[in-house]
């Protein structure tokens, strides 16, 4: 599990550890990890030209000490101080002692920029002077210290000019901004340097392959199809019969014992998935809404009558007007979530974490907000982010496959929070496998799912 903590949690854990350690020891650990990451990024240190952007706080201190270490290994290190009177005194002395220099501004194009403008103490976007300096450096790759300066660390929002990093080196634990978009996009690859902090439960987590394997429903030796669970799909319509096929494809990957289908695309479903039972009957979970058109509201009423857990997708989300009486997973994209909360889509995209949490609270169920980093928010406040999945996954029908897959996990016995986060991880991993760096279609994602499960279980 990857864990991301809030600034308040990090500060408390750091204070507790610092009280037990010699002064400055934590910063030395952080700076050593940072210097190592810069060398790894450049592939060398001797002769490399490194420019440090140094702000007023300890984030700048990390940059200065790392710069001193790089200068000690033969790099040419220069530092621009954005708040000269507040720059970290010890770090500045160390840099100078190692042969580094303070300069008023970049004098030539460096090989790498180290962004030590602000870290977890930052408020708002970059100030104008810093923004101009960063813009002037153009395409020079940036290694960000702790967080890319200018992003909101606890929410993942971006409210002004910010640094776009190639690599972000963070300390002690991940921060929310490393997992939640749009800030996560500004981080590039994230490296964690362990500081030995003692941390409380995380604000946001991200499942890793081992976590998903442990939660994957695996048949008992004595299993039969009904003990493994039956998932029902109420999706598709005369207008959107393909959505039924794709939703069924996501459900029929072998993770449950049986799939039922009810909707307007019987013949097509039967032709493409002969193993699927067409017609109503007992199920452990229903998936409702993908391509359901105007029939989605009636499909939702019928599914609710069975009293089993639900996945609500697409048109069924529009039919939702009150908290549901059964455990449920809602799977909106940003536009659908915006309609559910009566806000603009741009607002949802700018504050994905805030809106996913708000919807989970308002509707009293788990909300899976689809995106580059999909978020799964529980009404109790827990959030999981899915960071696997290539951009090729942004393709028509991929959401139908996801809804079917999550439904099969619900029917197999996972709760909506686990079904949403495991389903979204498998979906992203299957897309990566199907894509292999190239384009894909939604059906390819469903087809790759058994392969992904097999690799996890191997
Ligand atoms: N506390 C610790 O023991 C450790 C802290 N570390 C580093 O310390 C950082 C936190 O240090 P600080 O608490 O000093 O905070 P920061 O260095 O992140 O920033 C605080 C300073 O930046 C100014 N500032 C805030 N927003 C700004 C903006 N938008 N533009 C320009 N200036 C702005 C503030 O006025 C303040 O002077 C971490 O991110 C990490 O890099 C690491 O050395 C590990 C150990
Ligand atoms: K930074």
Distance between the termini: 20 Å
Q: What composes the largest sheet?
A: 12 strands, mixed
Task: Give the bound compounds.
Answer: ligand NAX, potassium ion
Subunit organisation of the chains: single chain
Subunit structure: Homotetramer.
GO molecular function: ADP-dependent NAD(P)H-hydrate dehydratase activity; ATP binding; metal ion binding; NAD(P)HX epimerase activity
Domain YjeF N-terminal: 10-203
Organism: Nocardioides mesophilus
Blueprint (SSEs and pairs):
Elements (H helix, E strand, L loop, with lengths): L1 E4 L1 H12 L6 H18 L6 E6 L3 H15 L3 E6 L7 H9 L3 E2 L9 E5 L11 H9 L5 E4 L21 E5 L2 E2 H4 L3 H5 L1 E5 L10 E3 L2 H7 L9 H4 L1 E5 L6 H11 L6 E4 L4 H7 L4 E2 L6 E4 L7 H10 L4 E3 L2 H4 L9 E3 L3 H8 L3 H6 L1 H12 L2 E4 L4 E4 L5 E4 L11 H14 L4 H20 L6 H16 L1
Parallel strand pairs: 1-8, 2-3, 2-5, 3-4, 5-6, 6-7, 7-9, 10-19, 11-12, 11-14, 12-13, 14-15, 15-16, 16-17
Antiparallel strand pairs: 1-10, 17-18, 18-19
Helix pairs in contact: 2-3, 3-4, 10-17, 14-16, 17-18, 17-19, 18-19
Bound molecules: ligand NAX and potassium ion.
Potassium ion binds next to strand 5 and strand 6.
